[in-house]
Structure to design on (322 residues):
């Protein structure tokens, strides 16, 4: 049974691993087109596996297929026999090109797409809009007071903007629950730019997205670099997937593979386990899954714990990515 963690300073409890649902976008739109369109049956199976393994929360967003991810998630939860309150659902408001007023006017559409599942965490997806942080937090606080959502989070906010959001919500008697940021062993910038330090100080949970570096840390692209050619979306153009990028990450990936072999687990599970424990309970992770086997693998990342002697070389070899 996965041990629950408190989401920030809210009363919401979540498992250290949640399921990221970007890939449920149906291949729709610029953002959703990053992934192949998954059949609903595959989505159902992925969600069922995560539920069976004890995962209790799911992260989606308005921009993921313009509501299609939310809808696919809701259908999968119902197919698994879940009802409102059985799980925790996080979604996000897309801020550009909008003002804070649309947080209030779009919430009913979010709830409609989720088809009866409540929003436990509503997040501002990006830091850029035509309104101030303070106006956005006021709009979110209004939704909490109206019982449309339970808690407020942000995503991709710098340490300073996160502090502003925290202060604005505090004036309304609410905590800032979380900041969802890109964080993995090959992208540790949140440690050097003050985000993690501020989160610890303020009692804010850091939700790590792309915790496997979009597959780099699995090691599969080092074994067969040609795999990237078959992947949809712009990932194939990213420098990390080119020969120079793979060479840069190879020493770290080789150490991950060595530790995985010693523990009888996979490299991906080692990379996730490091994130889950390096900062105590401050960081939770939301890996995605496009295949049922990926769901099984991600859930297994919490079935063991790396030793200090195993954590140390991973921290050292990933220092170039701070």
């Amino acid at each position: 049974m996965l041990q629950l963690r408190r989401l920030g300073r809210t009363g919401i409890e979540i498992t250290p691993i949640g399921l990221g649902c970007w890939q449920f976008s149906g291949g729709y739109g610029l953002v959703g087109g990053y992934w192949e369109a998954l059949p609903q049956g595959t989505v159902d199976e992925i969600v069922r596996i995560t539920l069976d393994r004890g995962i209790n929360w799911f992260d989606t967003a308005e921009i993921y297929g313009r509501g299609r991810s939310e809808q696919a998630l809701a259908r999968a939860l119902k197919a698994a026999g879940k009802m409102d309150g059985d799980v925790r659902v996080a979604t996000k408001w897309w801020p550009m090109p909008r003002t804070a007023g649309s947080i209030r006017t779009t919430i009913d559409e979010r709830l409609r797409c989720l088809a009866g599942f409540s929003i436990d965490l509503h997040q501002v997806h990006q830091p850029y809009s035509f309104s101030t942080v303070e106006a956005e937090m006021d709009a979110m606080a209004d939704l909490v007071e109206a019982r449309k959502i339970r808690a407020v989070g942000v995503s991709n906010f710098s340490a300073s903007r996160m502090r502003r959001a925290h202060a604005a919500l505090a004036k309304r008697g609410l905590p800032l629950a979380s900041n969802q940021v890109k964080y993995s062993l090959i992208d540790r910038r949140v440690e050097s730019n003050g985000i993690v330090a501020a989160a610890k100080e303020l009692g804010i949970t850091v939700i790590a997205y792309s915790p496997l570096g979009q597959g780099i840390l699995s090691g599969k692209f080092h074994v067969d670099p040609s795999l990237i050619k078959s992947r949809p979306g712009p990932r194939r153009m990213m420098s990390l997937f080119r020969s120079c990028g793979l060479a840069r990450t190879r020493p770290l990936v080789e150490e991950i593979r060595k530790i995985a072999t010693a523990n009888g687990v996979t490299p991906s599970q080692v990379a996730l386990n490091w994130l889950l424990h390096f900062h105590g309970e401050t960081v939770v992770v939301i890996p995605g899954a496009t295949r049922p086997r990926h769901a099984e693998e991600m859930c297994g990342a919490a079935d063991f714990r790396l030793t200090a002697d195993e954590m140390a070389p991973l921290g050292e070899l990933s220092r170039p990515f701070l």
